[in-house]
Amino acid sequence: MESEPAVDHDLATAEMRAQWNRTAKGWDDAGTVIRPWLHKATQAMLGMAGVVPGAHVLDVAAGAGDQTLDIAERVGPHGYVLATDLSPEILRFAAEQAAAGGYRNVETRVSDGQRLQIEDSRFDAVVCRLGLMFFGDPLQGLREMVRVLKPGGTVCTMVFGTPQANPCVATLMSTALRHAGMPPLDPYQPGGLLSLGKPGLIDELFIEAGFCEIATTKVAAPFRLPSVKDYMNFIRTSAGPVVQIVKRLDPATAEAAWSDMEQALGRYQQPGGWEGPNELLLTAARRS
Ligand SMILES: C[S@@+](CC[C@H](N)C(=O)[O-])C[C@H]1O[C@@H](n2cnc3c(N)ncnc32)[C@H](O)[C@@H]1O
């Protein structure tokens, strides 16, 4: 048998959960920078997913709930959102935000997107913002989305594109690995930040999962902040995969790694502020 034993996936998933439990507060605190960064792409994603008034929507890998509240706003009081995530710590913030905003149409549930414990054919739409690329088995995640959608239901996922189109992400990972004495990783290795950016891959996975009417759109999402230091503050507190590598280093090596990243990314400093290029892939599809 060529396939990995299931226990390896379980271990990787447990590590992923621990990683996001640790960075949960950082991701929530960074809401003020994440929201403007992803606003335009998020609105496009919700439109492509068919999030309309009255719809029942599943938000997979919902994190601290930023896009969950946008969905709740769109579906209105007659609609419903179930926000799910692998990490209970990060999902707690989504629940708190929904309660604080008075959204009574939002529920949260801790759930691995590869094993949603949700009945078949329950939702009109499924959304997954910057989550699917972390799945060790994204095809299984997509199969679960097909299963819980009603016939005719729609989905839209958002993932990062190629390393060339996301040079900041690529630089952060390669610099962290170099300081850790680790060899460069295949950027398309399952579970990595850029794993679904390989041209054509996400469409192939959607086809294999059984979706129809599949269309992927590239969206530019530059990260605009006053300075590279602000970007590094965001990365150091919120970017789970990078923090995960650097935290294994002794304090002096870790500081050298952060400093090298800052220096390399300083090339995106402009007179009016810092602007890091990012390209996102929005993939929309329908369950037949
Ligand atoms: C970059 S954050 C994105 C959170 C949120 N969707 C957003 O855009 O603000 C990635 C999220 O994916 C979640 N995640 C990773 N693997 C997962 C899995 N197998 N099932 C469900 N959620 C997962 C993490 O816990 C984390 O909350």
Topology:
Elements: H1 6-29, H2 31-48, E1 56-59, H3 66-75, E2 80-85, H4 88-100, E3 106-110, E4 123-129, H5 138-148, E5 149-160, H6 167-179, H7 201-209, E6 211-220, E7 223-225, H8 228-238, H9 240-246, H10 251-265, E8 269-270, E9 273-276, E10 279-287
Parallel strand pairs: 1-2, 1-4, 2-3, 4-5
Antiparallel strand pairs: 5-10, 6-10, 7-9, 8-9
The site of S-adenosylmethionine (SAM) has 21 residues, from helix 1 and helix 3.
Concise structural overview:
By secondary structure, this protein is of the alpha/beta class. 45% of the residues lie in helices and 22% in strands.
What does this structure look like?
The chain is α/β, with parallel strands linked by helices and 288 residues long. The chain is 45% helix and 22% strand. It has ten helices and ten strands. It has helices at 6-29, 31-48, 66-75, 88-100, 138-148, 167-179, 201-209, 228-238, 240-246, 251-265; strands at 56-59, 80-85, 106-110, 123-129, 149-160, 211-220, 223-225, 269-270, 273-276, 279-287. It has a seven-stranded mixed β-sheet, with helices on both faces. Helix 2 packs across helix 3, helix 6 (167-179) runs parallel beside helix 9 and helix 6 (167-179) runs antiparallel to helix 10. Mean pLDDT is 95; it is low at 1-7.
